[in-house]
Write a structure and sequence with these properties.
Chain lengths: 178, 856
């Protein structure tokens, strides 16, 4: 993973807010090519949250209504299966997850847990819908991006699971390369 | 009370049978007032014929005084009769509404499946109210009008028989034309009532289904439904008014024929000396007066027709019979049943065609626990509903303790059967109201002596697993003053525990009230005074407080805040200009959507003239924005460190100068406010100006218990929920405060239809409500289906241990891992019983149940 990007200027964050968050969102794959106006509105309506290691951002079975951008730190995506919690993936700065919550109503089918000190930008379902309502021309592009993010995640997780299946000793970093 | 079936009664039933005394009194007053209405006419004649003609000044004075006196009395009596009429109408309405509501509540369930809620609501509210207006004068008005009419007519004939009779000639014509127009009017009015009702239903439906509507953004679709009806109502109203004013027009026309005849013939006779001028004037007045009662009769006729139409439509709507009696026909005590249930060859059809249950027979001993299992659609839920009298069997027999269920009254059932539905209904009110819903009814009906004691309530809350929830509700409450004063020592201790043990853990979730830190999640006003001021936060309290304002201006903060307010106003207007129509986008600014236009105009003005030339009211608007600004929430602006430090300096000065508190002592908790007697605290809290600083040893009486314990603002609720709950449970238990807090939690308001509760909480509350009834029979229709495994097991355990042997339990069970604890299992398929017996035997038989269990 590209670690040069993770050194986000958090200390200066309190001094800029909308512009910093816009800048951050603009750099993400999800928003590349989306009009600055739309990104700025998302930045204005989103909120920053901090978590400590072990805190859950997403709990399996609860109502899904928020998507997250990792600003700093690492998130573990896990699932409960046969009374065990299994780590499927680790996400680092600039990762976008929970994206499906922006489009559909469902209950989370996985957990997201902070692995270390974590900072995220949160966008909720209603915000997404309100912004799209105001900028209908962005709808197709954004929807496509959300689905793309989902597909990427699926590919990565499947690869990770196959790797674990073929070689149970393999560490997680080998999966992340795929 | 219910002498005849309410829906079969005529409109006049209510008039004849209610408040007769008052109505007779009204009639008497009206008859008396008649005299005072004719009397002035006679005075008119005498003033002209006697006083003026004979130039008798003293007579003139006398007649004028008598004239005025009579007019005044007549006016006052009219005032009195109008008021009485309204009062009688409203009194009758009360009874009507009450009885009709009782009737509706007891109607069979299929009625409610067919009928829209909106229809019932509008029938019971607006439509009944319109009828009441008519009812008040239903008897008095026509009688009075007819009497008045003939009195004036008599007076006219007394003055001049020929003219009197002539003017009467026009009335027969009118009597033919008006009813004809009225019939048309009625026809359209009926349609209007029906359409308005549909309109109410449509609105009700879209409001009830607002989730679906907003989720699909189907505003246009819903609007379309309404538009059609609105158009229809418009066209009906147009027709209605055409006829209404047609009636008015024909009235006026006929009316003006009178004076025409009068002047023609009366004038001729006066010229020939056969008629005095005085008599002519009096005659003219009388003629005008005759018109009043005539008009009243017409209006009465119209409103009678209107009321009749409405009334009939309401009563047809509800013209069904309750399926079961509330009270027995012959007086007897409500049964105390043992709980033996038996069915023999029971059948149940819907709409006489679909057979849902077929040839069901079983026998359940008192105290036995029976599980009904089977495929969905097998009729197990239907069977449970038949047992609680919600539906009625079609043939065969279904008995409790040898009484046919259809012979039992609703009261018998209410006493002996407790019910839990799959999606139970929670009423608007407190948790306790809902918990005691069944018990309260039984107690009101005298079927139990007392409602369960607080201890019993608490025990039940624990049994169903609502202990932590109730505690959490308690934490979310602002504790009543008196209680808080008694317990605050412990609350403060708990605050200490949190700050010592959990401060680090909670840093991401809570912004603690730290005397030396700027609070990003509190408005600037609160940051300055570092405390609460007069109940809930509202910026107006600060703006209007002279002490606070002079503090701002002497420290120079006011100028800084005004600048901040202007910057925030400018950037909000610039940023949200395109989105001003949607309140949602205002979440990141202290400006409310409603004030956008106001600020837009202000900012324009501020750009033209010097800032200090603005009026003080205008400046206050900017000050308000700045004081309301909460940096942690309002993203529209970012404060710099310098400004935060200014505010902190201001805080220190405010506490020292205005409140006489040293900030360091405040933080360390060295300031130990003397424990005031409760009366003093009350006095202090009731005065709107009470100020409580965020000092560590200070209990904040107007904040929730949670705010007090955490002593900070919650930023991320999910993060603390679990830990705070467990900790609170532990500490409160140790200090013996748990029951007190839970008592407070029970008074938590569940919101409209229980919206503040989760699905699981609602279900548990409904279970507790049914268990508290301690009825000999308990019917549960997948009552634990929406609960998690642990809660389900807990409830199952309660049933198996506490209800074993003393309560007949019939449970429709979906999850088969729960059924081994039941004494008897009935397996159903396609409306028939396919297997029955105890769990062990059925499994060993390897029949249908065996198959079901192994499939799942």
């Amino acid at each position: 993973m590209d670690s040069s990007m993770t050194a986000e200027n958090n200390t200066e964050h309190s001094a800029c807010r909308i512009s910093c968050d816009s800048e951050f969102l603009r750099k993400s794959a999800t928003f590349s090519g989306v009009s600055p106006e739309v990104i700025k509105l998302f930045a204005y309506l989103s909120s920053r949250r901090s978590f400590k290691a072990g805190d859950y951002l997403i709990a399996q079975g609860e109502k899904a209504n928020q998507a997250f951008f990792v600003v700093k730190g690492t998130v573990e995506i896990t699932v409960h299966h046969r009374n065990k919690e299994i780590v499927l993936q680790e996400l680092e700065a600039h990762a976008f997850f929970g994206e499906l919550a922006l489009l559909a109503k469902f209950q989370w089918f996985f957990n997201a847990r902070a692995k270390d000190d974590l900072e995220v930008i949160v966008i909720d379902q209603k915000t997404f819908q309100k912004v799209i309502e105001k900028f209908p021309e962005s709808k197709d592009l954004l929807t496509e991006r959300v689905i793309q993010a989902r597909v990427d995640r699926l590919v990565q997780q499947t690869a990770f699971m196959i790797d674990t299946f073929l070689d149970p000793e393999a560490d997680k970093s080998s999966a992340a390369i795929v | 009370m219910a002498d005849t079936d309410i829906t079969k009664r005529s409109l006049f039933y209510w008039v004849y049978n209610r408040y007769r005394g008052l109505q007779v009194l009204l009639l008497v007053i009206i008859v008396v007032s008649l005299f005072f209405r004719v009397f002035p006419l006679e005075m008119q004649r005498r003033i002209i014929n006697v006083a003026i003609n004979l130039k008798m000044i003293d007579k003139l004075y006398l007649y004028c005084v008598l004239y005025m006196g009579a007019v005044l009395i007549a006016g006052l009596l009219k005032y009195l009769t109008n008021t009485m009429q309204m009062m009688i109408g409203q009194k009758i309405l009360i009874g009507m509404r009450k009885e009709l509501y009782q009737h509706i509540l007891q109607l069979p369930l299929p009625f409610f499946h067919r009928t829209q809620t909106g229809t019932i609501i509008s029938a019971l509210t607006a439509e009944l109210t319109a009828i009441a207006t008519f009812l008040g004068g239903a008897l008095a008005v026509p009688i009075t009008s007819i009497l008045t009419f003939f009195t004036f007519l008599g007076f006219m004939i007394y003055l001049n028989p020929l003219l009197g009779l002539l003017t009467m000639l026009i009335y027969p014509f009118e009597m033919a034309v008006i009813p004809l127009l009225q019939r048309w009017y009625n026809k359209y009015n009926r349609k209007r009532v029906a359409t308005t009702r549909t309109l109410a239903s449509v609105v009700n439906e879209s409001v009830t289904g607002i989730h679906e509507v907003q989720g699909n953004a189907s505003y246009i679709l819903e609007q379309g439904k309404l538009d059609r009806l609105v158009k229809k109502i418009y066209s009906l109203m147009t027709k209605l008014f055409i006829f209404k004013y047609g009636i008015k027009f024909s009235n006026n026309l006929f009316q003006s024929i009178g004076p025409f005849l009068l002047f023609l013939i009366g004038g001729y006779m006066a010229i020939h000396g056969e008629f005095t001028i005085g008599a002519l004037v009096a005659f003219l007045s009388a003629y005008e007066k005759v018109y009043d009662p005539w008009k009243e009769v017409i209006e009465y006729y119209q409103s009678y027709q209107d009321a009749r139409v409405r009334y009939k439509q309401i009563m047809t709507l509800f013209a069904y019979q309750p399926e079961f009696l509330l009270e027995p026909l012959e007086k007897r005590e409500v049964f105390n049943l043992k709980g033996e249930i038996s069915a023999t060859n029971l059948n149940y059809w819907v709409n006489d065609s679909v057979q849902l249950l077929q040839d069901i027979s079983f026998q359940i001993k008192p105290g036995n626990h029976v599980a009904l299992v089977g495929f969905s659609g097998s009729g197990k839920s239907t069977l449970s509903l038949l047992l609680s009298q919600l539906y009625r069997i079609s043939s065969g027999s279904l008995k409790i303790d040898n009484h046919e269920i259809s012979d039992l009254t609703k009261r018998d059932l209410a006493r002996n059967v407790a019910n839990v539905a799959q999606h139970p209904f929670i009423f608007t009110g407190t948790v306790r109201d809902n918990l005691l819903y069944a018990s309260n009814t039984l107690q009101k009906d005298g079927l139990i002596e007392a409602i369960p004691s607080p201890q019993e309530q608490m025990e039940m809350i624990r049994e169903v697993g609502l202990e932590e929830d109730t505690l959490r509700w308690g934490l979310r409450s602002v504790i009543p003053l008196e209680k808080a004063a008694q317990m605050r020592e412990s609350f403060l201790k708990m605050r200490e525990v949190i700050h010592h043990e959990l401060r680090n853990e909670f840093t991401q979730a809570i912004e603690f009230y730290d005397a030396h830190t700027f609070l990003h999640h509190q408005p600037i006003a609160t940051n300055l005074i570092f405390g609460t001021y007069g109940g809930a936060y509202h910026v107006d309290k600060f703006i209007t407080n002279q002490q606070f304002r002079s503090f701002l201006s002497t420290t120079g903060l006011e100028k800084k805040l005004l600048d901040l307010g202007l910057i925030i106003a400018r950037s909000t207007i610039e940023f949200l200009g395109d989105f001003r129509a949607d309140e949602y986008f205002f979440q990141g600014s202290p400006m409310s959507q409603a004030r956008f236009d106001h600020y837009e105009a202000l900012v324009k003005r501020a750009a033209k003239i010097e800032f200090d030339q603005l009026k003080s009211k205008e400046l206050e608007s900017f000050l308000q924005l700045a004081l309301d600004f909460t940096p942690g929430i309002h993203k529209i602006h970012t404060l710099n460190k310098q400004f935060e430090d200014d505010i902190l300096r201001g805080r220190s000065q405010f506490l020292k100068q205005v409140a006489d508190i040293d900030l360091d002592e405040c933080r360390d908790g060295a300031i130990q406010t003397a424990i005031l007697p409760i009366s003093d605290i009350e006095k202090q809290a009731r005065t709107t100006t009470s100020y409580t600083p965020f000092c560590f040893n200070q209990y904040l009486f107007n904040r929730t218990l949670r705010d007090n314990i955490l002593f900070g603002t919650v930023i991320n609720q999910e993060l603390i929920r679990e830990k705070l709950g467990t900790l609170a449970l532990e500490v409160f238990k140790k200090h013996g405060l748990l029951d007190d807090i839970m008592e407070i939690g029970l008074d938590f308001h569940v919101g409209s239809k229980g919206d503040n509760l989760s699905g699981g909480q609602k279900q548990k509350l409904a279970l507790a409500r049914a268990f508290l009834k301690h009825a000999p029979i308990l019917i549960m229709d997948e009552a634990t289906a929406s609960l998690d495994n642990r809660s389900q097991a807990r409830i199952q355990n309660y049933i198996e241990t506490r209800l074993r042997g003393n309560t007949t339990v019939i449970a429709v069970v979906h999850r088969l891992d729960m059924i081994s604890g039941y004494d008897h299992i009935i397996v159903m398929k396609d409306g028939k019983i396919v297997e029955a017996g105890n769990y062990q035997n059925l499994i060993e038989q390897q029949g249908v149940l065996y198959g079901l269990v192994n499939d799942s």
